Amino acid sequence: MSQSLLRAACGLFVGLSLASCASGPASKSVEPSMFSNELRSEHRGSDDLLTAGLGLAGLRSMAPPAFADANAPTVEELRRRALWGSWRGIADLAPGGGYGELFGSLAPAPGREYAAYARLPGAKQPHRVLAQVPDNFDLAKRCVLVAPASGSRGIYGAVSVAAAWGLPKGCAVVYTDKGAGSDYYDLDAQQGVRANGTVGALGEAADLAFVPDAPVNASGVAFKHAHSKDNPEADWGRHVKQAAEFALLALQQAYPQAAPFTFDNTRIIAVGISNGGGAVLRAAELEGDWLDAVVAGEPSIYSDGPGARALYDYTTEAALLMPCAQLHMSNLPQPPMTAALQAGAAVRCATLAVEGVIGGATPAAQAKSAYELMMSKGWTDEALRAGALSTGFDLWRAIAATYASAYGRYGVGEHPCGFNFAAQNPDFSPRTATAAERAAWISDGSGIPPGAGVGLLDSKVQLPDLTYAGLKCLRGLWDGQGEDAKRVQAGIQATRAGLPRQGLPVMVIHGTDDGLIPPAFSSAPYAAAAKAAGREVSYWQVRHVQHFDGFLGLPDYGSRYLPLLPYVYAALDRVQARLDNGAALPASAVIETTPRAGKPLTAGNLALPK
């Protein structure tokens, strides 16, 4: 049985609110927070908080850490593999990439972990929170980094973003999956993921992380981001705050002699990238001075700033137009633009021309028309070129299908465009999942299929342009007038960001070559609006940086692009100096970098501001 985090403070607290359970005032303004299914573990010796003992060599391994029994891995095996996947999904750890040499740390960080489910008032499903308290935690300078996962990743999704900077400095780190994560549910077997990561059956395990509201005859796989019916993105800022509240409780359990831990006596810095960056910016707008600073890398944020566009808007646009537009471009990064994908892109061009979306009588003319249309919508050459990755791996369709379901609060089998998810055969037909696949979902799943043995099922697939009908339906939810469109549009509007709190230091960092979340639609409008309103926001635009550090190990990407993480770490250094001694945040800047062109990364390539 798990131990309650608050036994030392007020006894078992399952079902109690934070406000009623803390031994002292938890903050200046704490909204009720609910935690349950608490777990505690210690990680020392051959294990640690940062890499589960894998170190650089283990993280570089192309094969994930093995399970002794593929059908029934241990909790420790699942954790180690989840950390392996979380590191490799975000950071460039390849030789010559500079990690652990020019920036970042992989030194062992012994300490304790505290995990629980957290539930926002009114939410149908919980989100996971997990606090890491290092043995070197500095009680004299109490510091917590709050790190929401990027994308829809699991609870360790931000380990390379926050823990690598915070743990060596004696800060605790707390994570949230922000209502997404890899707690998949097998509808055929009626099995899901338990609090400790192992698989449990409905009716037998009382601590399943996600049980969807689904018809009794439903088949396939459900996952929280698409099927929780909570539209989690609308509450990502509140998820971040609730994770910070949990960190205070974990510290109170770790160091009862030093209690209470409050927002008044503990520094709270929120840091995230991608939609984790958007989540910390949403937290920045919440009332109260519970938060001390924010660092947001490549944030997915929908603001009122000039030129701002919603993620769903430009994602569905890219899904339809980008394959054709990229045929007009040369020197696209490789992989994945194969001859087969180029042939499919030519079919897309013909489809768009027949539909009257673009002009041109030849494939070349059609590609030029699609390119010019995207440029007129605010896309740049840099974004279109780096976007080849998302086109080639069909990311646009996967993201759009998942977010449409989330925005509309649709349940299993209710997707307005007929998308579902299931394990798949080689011919993409659905099948039941195996026990080994289910066991690995928590560690291997990215939170948005396809991946980890789960695929996207598109009921509208048809020749000659296989995915066009489904994508057209998804686009219609953005610009259409029907009831489903209004439902999705309302969900999108609920994610619109406000201004950061007056006086809160905020640093935003974004690569100018980002092809997944173009800065022209996201960070640039947000920073412009915040600065115009007199907020303390510094905005770094970094040349030759795209969205995915994890792909820089591929030779062509590593030659063209630089990592984002060193700039995130540098921004954390700057906000720490701002909080320690009142140093001004650095001025907003366009950072002129130099690609490494196949050579080992140097400080000169990065050109970090002094």
Number of helices: 21
The whole-angstrom Rg is: 23 Å
Strand order of the largest sheet: 1-2-3-5-4-10-11-15-16-17
Q: Helix share of residues?
A: 25-40%
Distance between the termini: 51 Å
Quaternary form: single chain
Structural class: alpha/beta
Average per-residue pLDDT, rounded, comes to 94
Unreliable runs? 1-32
> Major β-sheet, in short?
10 strands, mixed
Mass-distribution shape: globular
Strand-residue fraction? 5-15%
Q: How many β-strand stretches?
A: 17
Commentary on this structure:
The protein is α/β, with parallel strands linked by helices. About 35% of the residues lie in helices and about 15% in strands. It has 21 helices and 17 strands. A ten-stranded mixed β-sheet has the order 1-2-3-5-4-10-11-15-16-17, sandwiched between helices. Helix 5 links the parallel strand 4 and strand 5 (about 170-175). Helix 9 (about 310-325) packs antiparallel against helix 11 and helix 16 crosses helix 17. It starts with 6 loop residues before the first helix and ends with a helix. Residues about 1-30 have low confidence and may be disordered.
Keyword list:
single chain, three-stranded antiparallel beta sheet, ten-stranded mixed beta sheet, 610 residues, disordered N terminus, alpha/beta
Secondary-structure blueprint of this entry?
Elements: H1 7-10, H2 18-21, E1 34-43, H3 55-60, H4 75-90, E2 111-119, E3 127-134, E4 143-148, H5 159-166, E5 172-176, E6 185-186, E7 191-193, E8 199-201, E9 221-222, H6 224-227, H7 236-254, E10 267-273, H8 275-284, E11 293-297, H9 311-325, H10 339-354, H11 363-376, H12 381-386, H13 388-392, H14 395-407, E12 419-424, E13 430-431, H15 435-444, E14 454-458, H16 468-479, H17 483-493, E15 506-511, H18 523-532, E16 537-542, H19 555-560, H20 565-581, E17 589-591, H21 603-606
Parallel strand pairs: 4-5, 4-10, 10-11, 11-15, 15-16, 16-17
Antiparallel strand pairs: 1-2, 2-3, 3-5, 6-9, 7-8, 12-13, 12-14
Helix pairs in contact: 4-15, 5-20, 7-8, 9-10, 9-11, 9-14, 9-16, 10-11, 14-17, 16-17
